[in-house]
Automatic annotation (TrEMBL):
Pfam families: AP_endonuc_2. The keyword Lyase applies. The keyword Lyase applies. Residues 36-281 form the Xylose isomerase-like TIM barrel domain. SUPFAM superfamilies: Xylose isomerase-like (SSF51658). Its EC number is 4.2.1.44. This is Myo-inosose-2 dehydratase. It comes from Emticicia agri. It is an enzyme of class 4 (lyase).
Length: 299
């Protein structure tokens, strides 16, 4: 068993939230990446406060010995044409390529309720027929081939409030996409949120996993999401997510770490647990996660 090929990073959404800009509005880009480095991470994803000038961004990251691991892309294949998606996709690949990044992530945001004030368990869009899934998979394959031809691995994020949340939906997605071009951005927190066992999911999909997000769930808050019919963003603001190592969490991370080790997973593992920074100090929680992962995974 080996962890030598696992790189550990953290997401800026723990400091400044892309979907809820008021969360962490007071935190600067420089504070964010400085605290990432101080906590002991070697990479990060891209947030809304990151400069888009690649030379400026490279200098800031190099000073802190950090590198870019991935960036979210909002696929809109259910609401826009493939060509419209291709144009925006290539723009992001241009940026990420300049930063030396080889992973492009993201999930389907067309027909999504993740950013809307509707109950997250009631408002998601659906692909209803086999033909719908086949068409969606074909279009994702096109984007995946573009990514592959340019030296990237497209790692698609199953996500609450979107068309792909559950194991059943993830099965259909993977069955209708080419394993040479389309991989999974596995997220244990989103699988638990969807009512699935994250350990079962990782065992099932490990051969298709191209990128990993590590976050935990506060089960008491998740129960409130169900009982009070909260939206996804209301759940986030109220702390449904937390980091690995938080005593309020419930996910079996040692079992997940064992699966990654036993299957010689090669790639990034990113701590990504969006919380309200006013309630959960980002540096404090980054250190909780970093120390827990070092103790339990050895990196």
């Amino acid at each position: 068993m080996s962890v030598q090929n696992i790189k550990l990073g953290v997401a800026p959404i723990n400091w400044t939230n892309d979907d809820l800009p008021e969360l962490g509005a007071e935190n600067t880009f420089e504070q964010c990446i400085s605290e990432m480095a101080l906590a002991g991470f070697e990479g990060c994803e891209v947030g809304n406060k990151y400069p888009r000038d690649t030379e400026v961004l490279k200098k800031a990251l190099n000073l802190r010995n950090l590198r870019i691991a991935n960036q979210w892309f909002s696929y809109e294949l259910t609401t826009k044409s493939l060509q419209e998606n291709v144009v925006e996709f290539n723009k992001l690949l241009d940026f990420l390529g300049a930063m030396g990044c080889t992973i492009v992530g993201g999930g389907e945001t067309g027909n999504s309720c993740q950013g809307k004030p509707v109950p997250v368990f009631e408002g998601k869009g659906m692909l209803h027929s086999a033909a719908d899934w086949k068409k969606y998979g074909k279009n994702m394959n096109e984007l995946g081939k573009i990514a592959s031809d340019r030296g990237f691995k497209l790692s698609f994020h199953h996500h609450m409030g979107t068309i792909i949340q559950t194991i059943e939906e993830t099965d259909k997605f993977l069955e209708n996409t080419n394993p040479d071009y389309v991989f999974l951005n596995y997220d244990c927190g989103h699988f638990y949120f969807a009512g699935e066992d994250p350990v079962t999911a990782l065992k099932k999909y490990i051969s298709r996993v191209g990128h990993v997000h590590l976050k935990d769930i506060r089960p008491k808050v998740l129960q409130q999401v169900h009982d009070e019919k909260w939206s996804f963003l209301t759940a986030v603001k109220n702390g449904v997510f937390t980091v690995p190592g938080d005593v309020e969490g419930c996910i079996n991370f040692p079992a997940l770490f064992s699966i990654l080790q036993e299957n010689s997973y090669k790639g990034w593992a990113i701590v990504e647990a969006e919380q309200d920074p006013a309630k959960a100090n980002p540096l404090e929680y980054a250190l909780i996660a970093r120390n827990y992962i070092k103790k339990n995974l050895g990196i």
